[in-house]
Amino acid sequence: MPTVHCKYHHTIPARYECPRCAIALCPQCVKPVPQARHGEVCCPVCNGELDSLGIGNTIVPFWERLPAIFAYPANPTIAIYLAMLSLATLLGFLPILGLLVYLLVFFVILKGGYVVLEETAHGQLTPSQTITSKFDEGNLLPLKQFAILMAIGFANGFVASISPLMGTLLLIAALFAIPASVITLAITNSFVQAINPTKLFAVITAIGWPYLLLYLFLILLSSGSSLANELLLPLMPTWLFLVLSTFIGGYFIFIMFHLMGYVVYQYHEPLGLEEVKEFEAPRPASAPAPEHPLLTEIDILMAEGQPLEAKQRLAAHLQRSNEPPLHERYHKLLLSLGEKSEALEHGRRYIPILLELEQPLKALELFAALSRLDPSFTIADGQQTYRIAQLATDTRRPEVALRALSSFAQRFPGHPQLPAAYLLAAKLFCEHKNDLSQAKKILLSLLGRFPQHPLEPEIRHYLQLVERLEGSGLA
Ligand SMILES: [Zn+2]
Ligand SMILES: [Zn+2]
């Protein structure tokens, strides 16, 4: 089945599909269900339930991942483990114990193989830190596997004694089913299941044609292992051959079990295996992580031509929280929708947030834009209004500063910053608008109203300056 890709990330395999909206979505594009306990997700457009496309859709098929599968045992934990077992074969030179040692080493490697299969099947694609400790746990799977092979042998012998043709056919079928049996044993731990023909048939059909490919790879791998032995044998002394061939044999066994595990991982949904670790597709450079998860949803709604729905959801979210990226997005959205009065109203809320977050230039920018939209635009706090005016003055935007300060006294009667605000306004009238009479009017009124104010000397000083300018006729 060809991989389905995310509608909004064309290179990322999709994980879900919305049957109502008919869109395929990658894990990054789905929306977490609010207050969900088990990480349930829903459609970012219609909020409805999603159909799973299966992790299988996001998993690289095993035939495209062979180098990584071959490299699986090339891991320090596994390599040290195999090296120790290989050295242990030297004990085989002891009298009497000999054969027992080889059998034991083989048994221990096979035990490890089943752990590798099980871990891989659950989505652990490189050996876990604790894998060797799991090798030591008392799994008797190799013994069960041996019993299975014995059972097959007996059954086959029995059938062959009745009909040689049937015996041959049974043998072919049994050989063909061995990987399915190994997989079933690793996953169910059950001898009965692993020899149950209907179960094995179900496993093979769940995997489908790729089972044949798996079979072919397993044959190649086991012949690769024997070929290595044949090449090595004439080249070295027996003891070294024993150590090396045990190591290489173990390496190949782990590859084979890892490969079978990977096939189970790839087909775990048709196989009915649960608790599989979700595969995380790497995010392509062209799709940087959004600043806020809700923004992904908003992007998708916009792409689906639903800006009003996007606006509604952002507004609802902003009633409960104050995340700046959401405010920014909401503001842009309102402007793009031409919602002037809503944009102004939102600005009155957003500018104080930006000032509190110490993003004064952004706050100023927003104030300037909104006061262009509506020259009577104001914010509710006197202190913040004065700060905007100061920022505008410092960044040489006298018009914006004067707009911020206009009717300050009416809006904030008795505000402690009132004298400072009007002194600033007088300076702006004088220095930027060349309006000396307006500046003088403001300064005189300030001196009349606040004769005792700490700013009084500065106000008086500035008044003298304005009067000198007036006298020199420069204005
Ligand atoms: Zn996506
Ligand atoms: Zn939908």
Structure description:
This protein has 475 residues and is an all-alpha fold. It folds into 4 domains: 16-58, no CATH class; 62-271, no CATH class; 305-408, Alpha Horseshoe (Serine Threonine Protein Phosphatase 5, Tetratricopeptide repeat), CATH 1.25.40; 416-475, no CATH class. Helices cover 65% and strands 3% of the residues. It has a 3-stranded antiparallel beta sheet with strand order 2-1-5, with no helix packed on it. Helix 13 packs antiparallel against helix 14. The longest helix has 29 residues, at 238-266. The protein is elongated and about 125 Å long. The termini are far apart. The protein binds zinc ion (2 copies). Residues 18, 20-21, 43, 45-46, 48 line the site of one zinc ion. The site of one zinc ion has 7 residues, from loops.
Write the layout of secondary structure elements.
Blueprint: E1 16-18, E2 23-25, E3 31-32, E4 41-42, E5 51-52, H1 55-58, H2 66-71, H3 76-88, H4 98-121, H5 131-136, H6 141-162, H7 164-188, H8 191-195, H9 197-207, H10 210-232, H11 238-266, H12 268-271, H13 293-303, H14 307-320, H15 324-336, H16 340-356, H17 360-373, H18 382-394, H19 398-405, H20 408-411, H21 418-431, H22 436-449, H23 456-472
Helix pairs in contact: 3-4, 3-11, 4-7, 4-11, 6-7, 7-9, 10-11, 13-14, 14-15, 15-16, 16-17, 18-19, 18-21, 19-21, 21-22, 22-23
